[in-house]
Amino acid sequence: MRLTVVGCSGSFPGPGSAASCYLVQADDAEGRTWRVLLDLGSGALGPLQRVCDPATLDLVGLSHLHPDHVADVSGLYVYLRYRPDGVRRRGPLPVHGPFGTASRLADQYGLEPGESMADQLSVHAWQPGSPVRVGPLELTPVAVEHPVPAYGVRVSGPSDEDPSRTVVLAYSGDTDVCDGLTSLAAGADLLLCEAAFVEGRDDAVRGIHLTGRRAGLAATAAGAARLLLTHVPAWNEPGVAAAEAADVFDGPIGTAHAGLVVTL
Q1: Among the four residues 51, 119, 124, 169, which has the most C-beta atoms within 10 Å?
Q2: Which chain regions cross the lipid bilayer (predicted)?
Q3: CATH (one of 3.60.15.10, 3.40.50.2000, 3.40.50.1950, 3.40.190.10) for 2-263
């Protein structure tokens, strides 16, 4: 399993990165590469094209419906429907998200009543705890705490170094501390965890985002092996989230940046 950070800026695109977008790839026993995209936030479709042809995606998983996680699905629809080279997918691209995703995407694109994106996007609602199989990958949505319905996604699949071994990537989406986050990250090889808030500055705001410290505590409580912090807004000082996490988590800690590739 390989993780490529396409975009990781929190809440809006920053000067060095698009908003949330993560490509997960894994090879099956026949050597076919499967590609799952976790979120496609504002500004992310551009850099995604440097990593892969979006038409080769096998599934898009949306953690929740805020624009910094879904805005560029509109552009993806245009890319799939109107590309002039005649190359077309064999069928609509599966998109999984919270209940209401289909209507939200249609409204976002500006479709007229009765129109649908179904010719290009096959939209499904996450069923909490029910895994979705994509080639050698299994995605399990776990409800987390955010002002709108939101899910973290637990991805299991073959290790890139030893395909006989199953590894786990836990993606928090946007959340504050909750039981769902702990179960999502339990024993994960890598916890890709948001850390948008800063200790001392944002203490009065709860139920929306984590700080680096709270992300570190979550990783410790869940027994995650590694922690990769993400969704850090451009206005935060670099390194603050990692320093907070290091006070409470003993494992390896990194901070996501556009173009980062992590093998599991």
Answers
A1: 169
A2: none
A3: 3.60.15.10
What is d(CA 227, CA 183) in angstroms, rounded to the nearest whole number? 15
The string of pLDDT tens digits covering residues 48-70 is: 999 999 999 999 999 999 999 99
User: Could you say which residues of the chain have pLDDT below 50?
Assistant: none
Could you tell me the two tokens for 202? 């944002």
- pTM value is 0.96
Handedness of CA 164, 57, 121, 108 (dihedral sign): positive
- Eight-class DSSP state of 208: S
Q: What are φ and ψ of residue 45, in 5° steps?
A: -65, -35
pLDDT at 258: 97
The pLDDT value given to residue 86: 65
Domain residue spans of the chain: 2-263
Cα separation, 257 vs 183, in Å, equals: 26
